[in-house]
UniProtKB/TrEMBL annotation:
<dbReference type="InterPro" id="IPR050118">
    <property type="entry name" value="Pur/Pyrimidine_PRTase"/>
</dbReference>
<dbReference type="InterPro" id="IPR029057">
    <property type="entry name" value="PRTase-like"/>
</dbReference>
<keyword id="KW-0328">Glycosyltransferase</keyword>
<dbReference type="GO" id="GO:0003999">
    <property type="term" value="F:adenine phosphoribosyltransferase activity"/>
</dbReference>
<feature type="domain" description="Phosphoribosyltransferase">
    <location>
        <begin position="36"/>
        <end position="161"/>
    </location>
</feature>
<protein>
    <submittedName>
        <fullName>Adenine phosphoribosyltransferase</fullName>
        <ecNumber>2.4.2.7</ecNumber>
    </submittedName>
</protein>
<dbReference type="Pfam" id="PF00156">
    <property type="entry name" value="Pribosyltran"/>
</dbReference>
<keyword id="KW-0808">Transferase</keyword>
<dbReference type="GO" id="GO:0006166">
    <property type="term" value="P:purine ribonucleoside salvage"/>
</dbReference>
<keyword id="KW-0660">Purine salvage</keyword>
<dbReference type="InterPro" id="IPR000836">
    <property type="entry name" value="PRTase_dom"/>
</dbReference>
<dbReference type="InterPro" id="IPR026597">
    <property type="entry name" value="HGPRTase-like"/>
</dbReference>
């Protein structure tokens, strides 16, 4: 099961962003190419786990292919959290910190009463999800769940406990320096 995903994890390259270890994978980076089979398999699995919701939300950039595929398979609309401001009414600005970058992000298209599932390629430090979730609650949206492909170094468990939300993932990743291990959840 999840054989294409398993195969895609063999021989991933690891690079350094300063002191931060980073692995290169099709669905986390768009490099090497994202095969249709991989996207199909991963999105099928996420659809199986998807809590009932009326909106899929995903931060740019690498949440987009996964969230789009899930949206196509479920007919649930998808909204993208952008790194550029449109300055339109209702836009909410947040500050994202990852292990290697800081960026402003802008939420449009989420309304009070929406039942939202957040989909992303990876959780690592949790900075991205920690920035997004409280703002969704302030807007009055209900966060029905978070689903990521990769849970790096137990980021999901830490954020889940701190924010009191459920974070599901398909693969646990242990990455320290240049040593990487993957643990599939099935
Ligand atoms: O848990 P964290 O430490 O916050 O890391 C996870 C985030 O890092 C990556 O986003 P990035 O902003 O690098 O953009 P990208 O999707 O364009 O790679 C990834 O897509 C997640 O959104
Ligand atoms: N591809 C990746 N590898 C390791 N850490 C990450 N954090 C965000 N993207 C990552």
């Amino acid at each position: 099961m999840l054989d294409v995903l398993k195969e895609s994890l063999a021989n991933v390259q690891i690079i350094k962003k300063g002191d931060y270890s980073y692995f290169i994978h099709p669905l986390a980076d768009g490099i090497p190419n994202i095969s249709a089979e991989l996207l199909d398999e991963v999105s099928d699995e996420i659809v199986k786990r998807l809590p009932p919701c009326n909106l899929i939300l995903s931060p740019e950039a690498m949440g987009i292919p996964i969230a789009t595929a899930v949206s196509l398979k479920t007919s649930i609309p998808c909204s993208i959290i952008r790194k550029r401001s449109y300055g339109i009414s209702g836009e909410v600005c947040i500050k994202q910190h990852t292990g290697y970058s800081q960026s402003m992000m802008y939420i449009n298209g989420v309304s009070a009463g929406d039942e939202v599932v957040l989909i992303d390629d990876i959780i690592s430090t949790g900075g991205t999800i920690r920035a997004i979730i409280p703002v969704l609650k302030t807007i009055g949206a209900q966060v029905k769940g978070v689903i990521v492909l990769f849970n790096k170094n137990h980021g999901a468990e830490k954020v889940s406990q701190d924010l009191g939300i459920s974070i599901d993932s398909l693969v646990d990743v242990e990455l320290v320096d240049d040593k990487i291990d993957f643990f599939m959840h099935q």
